[in-house]
């Protein structure tokens, strides 16, 4: 890219602005704009746009990414599976009382593994209110309706005989007309 003044570079996927993360690395140095996806999955398919703007105008270029999946090969006798790895993590948030909530992670690496979800270190049993779903490598906890007592730490744990991976976040349920309170000490250390 060339421009005077130097352009501001923005990347979009299917019309949505991308930001650098654990999954996507965006760089712009010495006139070269790059987007690097460390490990590509079917959900990465779409139209990618590189947009360069300065005070004199905007230019863009596009490309379409198509992902073809390879059939997974079964493990050979004596071959060990790898440990699962969470690569797209949970994010803490403030949520409204009564809203539906979806927590999701992306898990890679292992062919066979189990996934459980925890609330304040207690396993959440799947039910009509708390449903486990997965599509491709995306594992979700769907909470039909969240209540103040659902505030706390949520953890996704993926594990097999080779190892485990965790991701945690804190959800704080806000009740309308109730002001959030800053933390206070209930007791103080004694000298």
TrEMBL record:
It holds the Pfam family I-set. Keywords: Immunoglobulin domain. Residues 1-66, 84-172 form the Ig-like domain. The keyword Ubl conjugation does not apply. The keyword Cell membrane does not apply. Signal peptide: none annotated. Gene3D superfamilies: Immunoglobulins (2.60.40.10). PANTHER family: IMMUNOGLOBULIN (PTHR47633). This is Ig-like domain-containing protein.
């Amino acid at each position: 890219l060339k421009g005077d003044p130097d352009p501001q570079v923005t990347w979009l996927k299917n019309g949505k602005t991308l930001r650098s993360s654990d999954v996507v690395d965006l760089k712009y140095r010495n006139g070269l704009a790059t987007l690097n996806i460390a490990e590509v999955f079917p959900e990465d398919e779409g139209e990618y746009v590189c947009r360069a703007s300065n005070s004199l105008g905007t230019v863009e270029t596009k490309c379409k990414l198509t992902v073809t999946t390879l059939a997974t090969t079964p493990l050979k006798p004596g071959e060990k599976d790898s440990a699962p790895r969470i690569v797209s993590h949970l994010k803490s948030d403030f949520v409204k009382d009564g809203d539906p909530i979806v927590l999701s992670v992306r898990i890679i690496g292992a062919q066979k593994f189990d996934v459980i979800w925890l609330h304040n270190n207690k396993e959440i049993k799947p039910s009509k209110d708390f449903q486990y779903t997965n599509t491709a490598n995306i594992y979700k906890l769907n909470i039909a309706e969240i209540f103040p007592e659902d505030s706390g730490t949520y953890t996704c744990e993926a594990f097999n005989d080779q190892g485990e991976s965790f991701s945690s976040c804190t959800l704080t349920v806000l009740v309308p007309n109730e002001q959030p309170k800053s933390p206070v000490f209930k007791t103080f250390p004694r000298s």
